[in-house]
Amino acid sequence: xxxxxxxxxxxxxxxxxxxxxxxxxxxxxxxxxxxxxxxxxxxxxxxxxxxxxxxxxxxxxxxxxxxxxxxxxxxxxxxxxxxxxxxxxxxxxxxxxxxxxxxxxxxxxxx
Length: 111
Known about the structure:
Layout: E1 3-6, E2 9-12, E3 17-23, E4 32-38, E5 45-51, E6 56-58, E7 66-71, E8 76-81, E9 90-96, E10 100-101, E11 105-110
Parallel strand pairs: 2-11
Antiparallel strand pairs: 1-3, 3-8, 4-5, 4-9, 5-6, 7-8, 9-10, 9-11
């Protein structure tokens, strides 16, 4: 299954953005789907994940601002980002399972 992330761009601090991760095949049986990000000059970090039962986990740094959801009918996982901060800037990647990565989409938050 190939993953394609899109929705990145330039947004002002305090704004919102929704990222989408479209899979080329079914994700209904994929146990975990996740979003990671890599800020400039830093390591990649987990932002949010969603399990097959619909449960979700959100990193403390974005809790209350970001929401992850999956639409199995559309084979897509979303990351809704609200109240964006400059420190949210980075390349955002989606991942299915243990090691299937999509390409990144760049989010730049201006102050």
